[in-house]
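Note to self: keep these together.
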Amino acid sequence: MELDQLRYFLRVAERQSFTRAADELGISQPALSRSIQKLEEELGQPVLERRSRTVLLTDAGTLLQARAQQVLTLLEDTRAELQDDGQTGRVRVGAIPTIAPFFLPRVLREFSREFPRATLVVREHTTETLLKCCSQGEIDLAILALPVAAKYLEVEELFEEELLLVLSPGHPLVEREKIRLSDVEPYPFVLLEEAHCLTDNILSFCRQRSFQPVVVERTSQLATVQELVSLGHGVSLIPAMARQLDPSERRVYRSLAGLKPTRTIAVAWNPYRFQSRLLKAFRERLR
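Structure:
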């Protein structure tokens, strides 16, 4: 049994497709199929159930998936530990889309200046995907917003951030000295799609104050939310870090009076994986 066979098997099991797995691995589909077939011959039983449009794990495949992940993780951690000099190596950082473009650039620049021989790899995705990647060792840490269901992961709060009301310049509320949440209630909201935790933060804050916003549009990008607000499609709540990088005069940002909506930014990592000196240094820079 070869390590490449295990890597190939895990990718097919994850993607549930030989075609997608072959594309990501950079090998031909026939070569991938032969590798899996050889693995099954060595084990004396099938590990994958091949169907017309998908691939499923057999009982043996489910066991092999868990064991293969353990084997590869142990080897990766051993290699990293043996090569850990505190200056070279790779740090794989995950961040949700409402944090990555605003918070990460400065952190990455400062860390790269201090550790010029280190390699930083960034992956931007939703909270659910990042937590899964962190658990499986595909990334070293994830920067996200609480709350999270982080089973077997270590989670440390970094800071609390205010969510600002964003309006078009011609909106009736712009002229008000103070804007309360009750003042916003009559107006439609533009929000991110439900997969984004920022939407949960906003809806939860509103529901706790007996207010259910009317959502007229949803999008997958925070920049699109801002543009739709500029065009008068509705109002929204935007993280303060996004406001700091928005030079446009086509939007007005206001802090709500009274109890303010916030979100808590945190970093999560797998404490059961080897923690290199470089990774610990990166976490310290985040703090």
